[in-house]
Write a structure and sequence with these properties.
With about 90 residues, the chain is mainly beta. The protein is about 10% helix and about 30% strand.
Length: about 90
């Protein structure tokens, strides 16, 4: 299964090969991204991506099924809410 192939510090890329983030670790059914890569008003805390969006693991990269521009809109807060101005940390 793909989840077992995902390791800490792997690069997460979109289907287009563009960088989305770096794996902090897998937590439940989501990839927890390193908080050091959070931007804007989301800076300083972790974002998550559902494992269902993972297309596969290629070497040291986790490839998502969506292009990077779409993948970042699929990121979630710890609570499971979408990332956004009114989302809780």
């Amino acid at each position: 299964m793909t989840q077992q192939n995902i390791k800490d510090n792997m690069e997460v890329i979109g289907a287009d090969g563009v960088h989305v983030g770096t794996v902090d670790h897998v937590e439940g059914n989501r990839i927890k991204l390193k908080k050091s890569e959070s931007e804007g008003f989301h800076k300083g805390h972790h974002h998550y991506i559902e494992l269902g969006f993972v297309a596969g693991v290629e070497g040291s990269k986790v490839r998502l099924s969506a292009n990077a521009a779409i993948a970042v809109t699929l990121e979630e807060e710890k609570s499971g809410k979408p990332v956004g101005p009114s989302a809780e940390a």
